[in-house]
């Protein structure tokens, strides 16, 4: 019997944002909190997703739930459980919504029955918890099929899709056909971009962009010296005598030490602390194109052999993310490509699987790696939004990203980062990276502008206000 489980999320006070806002914005946020409490009085707000760690949803949901609880809203986060076959089907749907065939496996009646069977099991437990009038926010294809059962007991069901493709094709249509029964039961739908909204949702769709919590462990302030110490302790940087302790502050305020090492494939020693690092951090997913980043960096080194820079491709430990069955195969493909490179290239390319046993420790490692990076890249072939770029921009890092999906909504080319028009063009990506490595003053200016852009548009306070609007719309529907 498959049952969902609840992830405990500690309440966080909204008051911590007061010092980050002017008086008018702080007053508005307080008013929104009062409105949320009134709208949700006697009701619960349930978030349901498919994994508690790895990926953007697992980054966004706990922070929103924490602040909702801090505003005295009864908010929860539940994670469904599934079989390997179920997650294979949902990964195929994930690729299809991006317009890709993935492994080309079918999405027919037999797959739909196996998908529905897993969700029926999960729904039995959910129907004990969810009460009439509660708000249920289902995240991504894995949960969409829960909508009919939850709507039938009187819950206000909203489905949120964090992924999509700007120009739909036959694969996108195939995915929407598969998800049609669940979509029909949702009162409202939420998308990251207007271009992702399918025709069947056009009359009940909201556009709400993701956000980061600037107080989360992954985004908390960190000195360069501590960042280097954490990376040295993890095996991602050469250690130096007299370094401070590799410590960070947990969400509960307790100081902790980074103790686990990354699983790293490299030739020779770790990068020296003074060598500029080009860094991409993402799931081991072919749509994130880690192989393309490696190939483009190899091209850059061949074109400019005296350029002083090294590449770090980092992602979660491949066995740690339940709903991503492609991770191990993708990593193996990248490793095979790395082995094909010359000795000169392999010495300057490092592949790292970051430890995921302690999620806050993992967040601290990612924080350190992003803050130490000379350039943070996201050369995705398709991308729903791309929180790794948001995080890097908050840390005032110069970024190079593909002009696809939500990356285009964050990076203004030449103003706060660089966009690569054709994500498959290795030469264009290599040229963008080279231009920033050779002009550090320009890179620093782009980073400063990036930080302010995130502050204005992509923090959790804006996101919370969007959800108050969502609840108001549900109330208006009756």
Automatic annotation (TrEMBL):
Q: Which residues form the Glycosyl transferase family domain?
A: 274-451
Signal sequence residues = none
| Domain spans labelled Trehalose synthase N-terminal | 47-197
> Could you tell me the Gene Ontology terms of the biological process aspect for this record?
glucose metabolic process
Q: Which InterPro entries match?
A: Glyco_trans_1 (IPR001296), Trehalose_Metab_GTase (IPR052078), TreT_GT1 (IPR049438)
Keyword set, alphabetical order: Carbohydrate metabolism, Glucose metabolism, Glycosyltransferase, Transferase
Per its UniProt entry, which superkingdom is the organism in? Bacteria
Q: Which Pfam families match?
A: Glycos_transf_1 (PF00534), TreT_GT1 (PF21269)
The protein's GO terms of the molecular function aspect are: glycosyltransferase activity
What Gene3D superfamilies does its record include? Glycogen Phosphorylase B
The family classification in the record reads: Belongs to the glycosyltransferase group 1 family. Glycosyltransferase 4 subfamily.
Quaternary arrangement and interactors, per the entry? Homodimer.
Name of this protein: Glycosyl transferase family 1
- The organism is Corallococcus macrosporus DSM 14697
């Amino acid at each position: 019997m498959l049952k969902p489980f609840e992830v405990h999320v500690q309440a966080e006070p909204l008051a911590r944002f007061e010092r980050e806002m002017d008086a008018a914005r702080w007053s508005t946020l307080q008013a929104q909190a009062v409105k949320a409490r009134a709208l949700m009085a006697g009701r619960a707000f349930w978030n349901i997703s498919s994994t508690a760690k790895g990926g953007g949803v697992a980054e966004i949901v706990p922070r929103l739930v924490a602040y909702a609880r801090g505003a005295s809203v009864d908010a929860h986060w539940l994670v469904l459980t599934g079989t390997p076959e179920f997650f294979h089907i949902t990964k195929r749907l994930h690729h299809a919504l991006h317009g890709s065939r993935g492994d080309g496996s079918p999405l027919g009646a037999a797959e739909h029955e196996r998908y529905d069977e897993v969700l029926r099991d999960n729904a039995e437990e959910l129907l004990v918890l969810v009460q009439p009038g509660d708000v249920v926010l289902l995240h991504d294809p894995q949960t969409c099929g829960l909508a009919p059962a939850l709507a039938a007991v009187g819950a206000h069901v909203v489905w949120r899709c964090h992924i999509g493709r700007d120009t739909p094709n036959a694969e996108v249509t195939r995915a929407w056909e598969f998800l049609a029964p669940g979509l029909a039961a949702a009162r409202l739908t939420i998308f990251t971009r207007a271009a992702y909204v399918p025709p069947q949702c056009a009359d009940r769709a909201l556009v709400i962009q993701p956000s980061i919590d600037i107080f989360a462990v992954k985004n908390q302030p960190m000195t360069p010296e501590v960042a280097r110490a954490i990376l040295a302790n993890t095996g991602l940087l050469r250690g130096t005598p007299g370094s401070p302790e590799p410590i960070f502050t947990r969400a509960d305020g307790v100081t902790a030490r980074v103790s686990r090492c990354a699983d790293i494939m490299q030739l020779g020693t770790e990068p020296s602390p003074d060598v500029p690092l080009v860094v991409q951090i993402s799931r081991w997913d072919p749509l994130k194109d880690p192989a393309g980043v490696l190939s483009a960096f190899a091209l850059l080194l061949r074109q400019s052999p005296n350029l002083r820079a090294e590449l770090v491709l980092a992602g979660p430990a491949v066995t740690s993310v339940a709903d991503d069955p492609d991770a191990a195969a993708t990593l193996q493909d990248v490793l095979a490509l790395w082995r094909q490179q010359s000795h000169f290239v392999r010495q300057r390319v490092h592949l790292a699987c970051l430890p995921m046993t302690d999620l806050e420790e993992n967040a601290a490692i990612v924080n350190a790696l992003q803050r130490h990076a000379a350039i943070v890249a996201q050369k995705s072939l398709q991308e729903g939004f791309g929180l790794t770029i948001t995080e890097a921009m908050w840390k005032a890092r110069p970024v190079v990203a593909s002009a696809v999906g939500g990356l285009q909504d964050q990076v203004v080319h030449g103003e706060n980062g660089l966009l690569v028009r054709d994500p498959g063009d290795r030469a264009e990506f290599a040229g963008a990276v080279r231009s920033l490595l050779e002009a550090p003053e320009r890179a620093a200016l782009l980073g400063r502008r990036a930080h302010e852009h995130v502050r204005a548009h992509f923090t959790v306070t804006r996101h919370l206000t969007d959800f108050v609007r969502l609840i108001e719309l549900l109330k208006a529907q009756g």
